[in-house]
Amino acid sequence: MGFNLEDYEPVAARSTQSIKGWESSATIGVVSAAIVEAVGDIDGVAKTRTAKVDSRSGSGYSYKYADLSDVIASTKAILKQKGLVALQTVASDETSVIIGTTLLHASGEWIAFEPLRLPLGRTAQEIGSAITYGRRYTLLGCLGIAAEDDDGASAVAHPSREEMAKVSRAGGGTPSASSSGNYPSLASEKQMEALRKMGKRRGADTDEALAEALSTLLGKTIGLLTLSRADASTAIGEWTKE
Predict the structure, then answer these.
(1) How far is CA 202 from CA 181, 195, 197, 198, 214, in A?
(2) For 155-200, what is each residue's pLDDT tens digit?
(3) Taking a C-beta distance cutoff of 8 angstroms, is the pair 67, 132 a contact?
């Protein structure tokens, strides 16, 4: 069923309601119904990206993954048909990148979900990766759908606010290899540089592809923002042997 703006009265109320995990306009009957219809029409997000990883021994492998553009392509038209748009904001503080997502209906009703906080990162590339990851997974979560690689290696573990506070009190700023608290020693800049060079030689020329390759190599989910010094050392050693 398509959306017709004439079927709805604009929401003029200035008051809002707040429930743990999200806030909304004073009424949400229209936007809720639209979201339910949209979710019912979204079949999931397919992996359309392919990364190839080559080894020095001549063997190699490839894998498919879905990125942010795949998520948007799979949902935008259906949301529009139901009178919905997903608005995403990006902010930051001393320790975190903060991704906010709001589902806005043309009637004026809206639901804003609790922002996702991720480690800020140490370079512009890492910050960009955190933003892309955050936008992707908050949009999927808000719509109650999963990409085919939802458990994929591009996942970035995000600490709780309590953990971020511990790091801030311990030394302030972004968690690093010398941070105390609940974080392991993170990979050094030299290790990350080496892994990116080795990854490119194997066809993993983006951070997302590199995270996938490292996860396959190490046999567990790897996020570049939280890659430990020990795991980085292991990966470098294994790739050097090839």
Answers:
(1) 35, 10, 9, 7, 11
(2) 344 443 344 344 334 433 333 333 333 444 778 888 888 999 998 8
(3) yes
d(CA 214, CA 235) in angstroms, rounded, equals: 7
Beta carbons within 8 Å of 143's beta carbon, 6+ residues apart: 35, 38, 39, 42, 75, 86
* Two structure tokens written together for 145: 């759908």
Tokens standing for residue 71: 């998520």
Residue 217 is encoded by which pair of tokens?
Answer: 């190599």
Distance, CA of 119 to CA of 167 (rounded, Å): 11
Specify the pTM: 0.56
The DSSP result for 148-164, as a single string, is TTTT-TT------HHHH
Q: Could you tell me if 138 and 101 are in contact, meaning their C-beta atoms sit under 8 angstroms apart? A: yes
User: How many other CB atoms sit within 10 Å of the CB of residue 109?
Assistant: 25
Do 176 and 122 touch, CB atoms closer than 8 A? yes
Cβ(83)–Cβ(5) below 8 Å: yes
d(CA 164, CA 117): 9
* Side-chain half-sphere CA neighbours of 10 within 13 A: 2
Task: Name the residue among 177, 20, 182, 176 with its Cα closest to residue 94.
Answer: 176
List pLDDT tens digits, range 136-162. 888 988 888 876 544 333 334 444 334
